[in-house]
Model the fold of this input.
Amino acid sequence: MSGEEKKPKIGRKGPAWDRTILLADDDAALRDVMRKALRDNYRILDAPNGTDALRMAQKYLPDLILLDVNMPEMNGDEV
Done:
């Protein structure tokens, strides 16, 4: 992200609304599919690269991180 951190994309309330999932993938279409599949039941955070994923994980402490291994800036193994 260019300088400023964007607000995380957060889904609607559901039975597991107190659970947060961080989606980290450089493929925007894949993140969108996963977000749509999970948003009714979980709070969803969205990161386009490993650097942003690490920053968001430290800030929001998600319950689960779905992390792509092959990403720019910082790969999944480094995160």
